[in-house]
């Protein structure tokens, strides 16, 4: 049936077949990615209407407000990306939702760069379509953080490594080193990708030709050169972001075994829909898999070693060191296995199947936008989110209004519950700085009195006992303060939703006090060291 359909396609299939004809002329893949970004950005705009951005996205923007070669909690790439984006585009929910999906679109573009090393024509499209059936490029991507930023960087680094290994040219060697370093400043988890590159090069039959060339050593030198500002930052600031990464290494052997099991099952679940589709496409031809694996090309074999390394190395490390291992840390590497499976088949895949998968992907996207997104938005308007996203903009607006009435000045620094503080910094027209140093983000230390004297505000949801007790402790240090309770209500398309009380604490600036968010952060840190 597939061959017959390709020879005499139905009328509705012909536009899609013409689209597949455009793969090698250069317009079909960009069109697919552009449509993907547009449709899923629209989904986010509808599904999260009346709600704020995810706290992780707000945190990424908060980090990027002050350029640095490192930050106390995470490596700096996500902050750099968010800062660069908002330097060009407006500061709004839709803008950052588009940023998240543009990052996913860029990831798919680099995946295609990898795939076209091995296949041409509609198989390149099939790789992307199967990846669009995983949750990595929509739902994982919308939560823009240190994990999501790797979606684009890992395929870029993989592509550059493949080209450097194959060509051994200086250009690709430099590109491989730069992209690997970029992955490391995205998240230290990328050490598993970089180590997989090294192991793949050592395991490959052509290792002697590669290792005796200048290519790997150019990559190493370039990578360390690009990383050197961040390494210097780590060496001169106490390596707090490295400590934060190591804080995940505190599990027992039993908990590590459970983490490994959940890690593997989570990755299997993530690719399950795409795997079922592939089984339906292959049918009885699946029995050719062993022969196809043995006949795998040199480049695909190198990619296979990389893919296996990105799974085995985290598992071994977790078992040896007791580290946490959630599967979402590895979602950016799913493309490796999809590329291997599709590009490793020696039998032809009829375009009939690629058209069918395209229809399935398009159908899911349309149902998501037209049905699931409005239902999700209405449900959340009534039931809310655990982190309180429905109330971010309203709480920030009311805090700003009351601060202006109380002081007649702009709000410069904000703290309290992290999600509310990030939201106040983003949604308030004053855009106050998040006043708590990230090195002490979860310690609930008290700001110095001098910090309070320069003007400061905090927010807590009523009922958050830790935050409320902290606010009481701050009030004992503040010379003059105002605490008020407000009730904020969610709203969606004119329909009122869930409400929740929020406690505001405002400490007006004292006479002759100068306002400096950076100084406030330093004062807070000093207070944690007992220097008050």
Largest sheet, strands/sense/barrel: 5 strands, mixed
Shape: globular
Question: Radius of gyration from the CA trace?
Answer: 26 Å
By DSSP (H or I, 4+ residues per run), the number of helices equals 24
Q: In which range does the helix fraction lie?
A: 55-70%
Structural class of the secondary elements? alpha/beta
What's the N-to-C terminus distance?
79 Å
Q: Give the percentage of residues in beta strands.
A: 5-15%
| Poorly predicted regions | 513-532
Number of strands: 5
Strand order of the largest sheet: 2-1-3-5-4
Overall mean pLDDT:
91
**Pattern of helices and strands:** HHHHHHHHHHHHHHHHHHHHEHEHEHEEH
What is the topology?
Elements (H helix, E strand, L loop, with lengths): L1 H6 L6 H8 L6 H20 L7 H10 L12 H12 L4 H23 L6 H11 L3 H7 L7 H18 L2 H15 L6 H13 L3 H5 L3 H23 L2 H7 L6 H30 L6 H6 L3 H24 L12 H10 L7 H33 L8 H16 L5 E4 L1 H10 L5 E2 L14 H5 L2 E6 L3 H13 L4 E11 L2 E13 L9 H12 L4
Parallel strand pairs: 1-2, 1-3
Antiparallel strand pairs: 3-5, 4-5
Helix pairs in contact: 3-6, 3-19, 4-5, 4-21, 6-7, 6-8, 6-9, 7-18, 7-19, 9-10, 10-13, 11-17, 15-17, 17-18, 20-21
């Amino acid at each position: 049936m597939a061959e017959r359909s390709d020879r005499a396609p139905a009328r509705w299939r012909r536009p899609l077949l013409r689209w597949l004809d455009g793969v090698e002329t250069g317009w079909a893949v960009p069109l697919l990615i552009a449509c993907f970004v547009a449709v899923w950005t629209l989904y986010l705009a509808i599904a999260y209407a009346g709600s704020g951005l995810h706290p992780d996205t707000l945190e990424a923007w908060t980090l990027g407000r002050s350029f640095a070669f490192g930050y106390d909690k995470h490596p700096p790439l996500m902050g750099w990306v968010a800062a660069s984006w908002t330097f060009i585009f407006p500061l709004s929910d839709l803008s950052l939702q588009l940023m998240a999906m543009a990052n996913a679109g860029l990831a798919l573009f680099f995946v295609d760069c990898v795939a076209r090393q091995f296949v041409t024509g509609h198989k390149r499209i099939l790789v992307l379509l199967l990846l669009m059936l995983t949750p990595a490029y929509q739902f994982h991507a919308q939560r823009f953080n240190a994990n999501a930023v790797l979606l684009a960087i890992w395929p870029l680094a993989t592509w550059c490594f493949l080209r450097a290994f194959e060509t051994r040219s200086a250009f690709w060697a430099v590109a491989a080193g730069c992209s690997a370093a970029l992955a490391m400043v995205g998240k230290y988890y990328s050490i598993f990708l970089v180590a997989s590159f090294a192991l793949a090069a050592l395991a490959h039959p052509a290792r002697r030709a590669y290792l005796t060339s200048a290519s790997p050593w150019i990559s190493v030198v370039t990578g360390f050169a690009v990383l050197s500002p961040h390494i210097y930052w780590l060496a001169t600031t106490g390596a707090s972001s490295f400590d934060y990464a190591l804080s995940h290494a505190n599990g027992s052997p039993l908990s590590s075994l459970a983490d490994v099991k959940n890690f593997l099952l989570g990755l299997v679940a993530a690719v399950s829909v795409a795997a079922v589709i592939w089984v339906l496409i292959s049918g009885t031809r699946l029995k050719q898999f062993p022969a196809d694996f043995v006949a795998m090309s040199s480049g695909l074999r190198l990619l296979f070693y990389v893919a296996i390394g990105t799974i085995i190395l985290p598992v071994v490390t977790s078992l040896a060191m007791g580290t946490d291992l959630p599967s979402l840390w590895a979602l950016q590497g799913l493309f490796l296995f999809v590329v291997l499976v599709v590009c490793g088949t020696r039998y032809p895949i009829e375009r009939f199947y690629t058209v069918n998968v395209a229809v399935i992907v398009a159908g899911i996207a349309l149902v998501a936008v037209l049905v699931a997104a409005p239902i999700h938005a209405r449900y959340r308007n009534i039931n809310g989110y655990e982190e309180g996203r429905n109330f971010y903009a309203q709480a920030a607006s009311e805090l700003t209004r009351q601060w202006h009435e109380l002081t007649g000045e702009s709000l410069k620094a904000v703290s309290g519950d992290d999600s509310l503080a990030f939201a106040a910094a983003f949604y308030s027209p004053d855009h106050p700085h998040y006043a708590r140093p990230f090195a002490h983000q979860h310690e609930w230390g008290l700001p110095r009195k001098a910090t309070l004297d320069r003007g400061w505000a905090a927010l807590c949801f009523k009922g958050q006992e830790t935050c409320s007790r902290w606010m009481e402790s701050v009030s004992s240090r503040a010379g003059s303060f105002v605490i008020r309770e407000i009730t904020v209500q969610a709203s969606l398309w004119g329909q009122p939703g869930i409400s929740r009380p929020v406690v505001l604490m405002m400490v007006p600036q004292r006479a002759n006090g100068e306002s400096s968010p950076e100084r406030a952060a330093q004062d807070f840190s000093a207070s944690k060291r007992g220097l008050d």
